[in-house]
Design a protein that fits this description.
278 residues; TIM Barrel; alpha/beta; globular; single chain; 46% helix; 12 helices
Length: 278
């Protein structure tokens, strides 16, 4: 398919930068190859300070944003982290209120900026917490105050999952519509729908088949969809999804991914570049 025939655009975003060494190394390698257009940083990780310089070497190739975190081991060590189930329960029952929530979001943005030396290109969330009730409102308030006067504001990921299944429905129901409505009301840049959810199981070929389906599911529209991924150059032994990360890296680094993009008529774009043009 010729370049002029490409009719669909997608942001391919690698989550969890700085979660461990293989993940950071794998993401940088894929950026060099041109296989990613965004990555999201776990700014609470002690590795972020060490891993930021390598990412700065490819900053002209990808958007780099904050992966807002309330559920990882880093959040637990910081004293406020909870399991995903506990965070969802607290969100549903109005437990995220008051200045402490806003202060933590500010702290994570400060941690990101202190080593990136610039505002984030985007903000999303580890396990989609950016759109949970309470966290969502606090995040919107903080980014509006910090970045609302900027000409190019950080886009937000709206985890409106464009896939069938209970998990996809739950992710979407936790606040995707409300976050998108806020973005539209405030003329705030956002990217949706979200693709890339699966069980982190199966073989390398299974992952390729997932990606082929996701690429076909990218809507034909002026605004790009987003595919999240979680690659790493190798499987870390203390990483629950380490084997899946290694499979994702092997596929994304391969010519098969390039061919699948071409066959589906999809091009990789940066969310920040999309919103510069609109």
């Amino acid at each position: 398919m010729s370049e002029t025939a490409l009719i669909k655009s997608v942001v391919v975003c690698a989550d969890d930068y700085a979660v461990n060494t293989p993940t950071s190394q794998g993401i940088v390698a894929l950026c060099v190859l041109g296989r990613l257009s965004a990555t999201s940083v776990m700014a609470l990780s002690p590795r972020w300070a060490e891993d930021a310089p390598a990412l700065r070497e490819v900053r002209e190739r990808v958007d780099v944003g904050l992966h807002l975190d309330w559920t990882s081991t880093f959040a637990h060590h910081a004293g406020f982290g909870r399991s995903l189930g506990a965070v969802m329960w607290r969100s549903c029952w109005g437990g995220f209120r008051g200045p402490a929530v806003r202060d933590e979001i500010e702290r994570q943005l400060d941690a990101f900026e202190s080593h990136w030396q610039a505002p984030p290109d985007h903000v999303d969330g580890h396990q989609h917490v950016q759109q949970f009730a309470g966290l969502r409102e606090a995040l919107c308030e903080v980014v509006l105050r910090r970045y609302g006067s900027q000409q190019l504001r950080p886009w937000v990921r709206v985890s409106r999952v464009a896939q069938v299944g209970l998990k996809a429905q739950v992710i979407t129901a936790m606040g995707a519509q409300a976050l998108q409505a806020w973005a539209q009301q405030h003329d705030w840049p956002y990217v949706a729908p979200l693709l890339g959810a699966y069980g982190f199981d199966g073989s390398l070929n299974d992952y390729r088949q997932h990606m082929q389906r996701w690429l076909l599911d990218v809507p034909v529209a002026d605004q790009a969809a987003i595919i999240m991924c979680h690659p790493a150059s190798s499987a870390s032994t203390d990483d629950e999804i380490g084997p899946a990360r290694a499979r994702e890296f092997a596929y994304l680094a391969s010519h098969d991914f390039v061919q699948d993009l071409r066959d589906a008529g999809v091009r990789l774009v940066r969310g920040s570049e999309l919103w510069k043009r609109t």
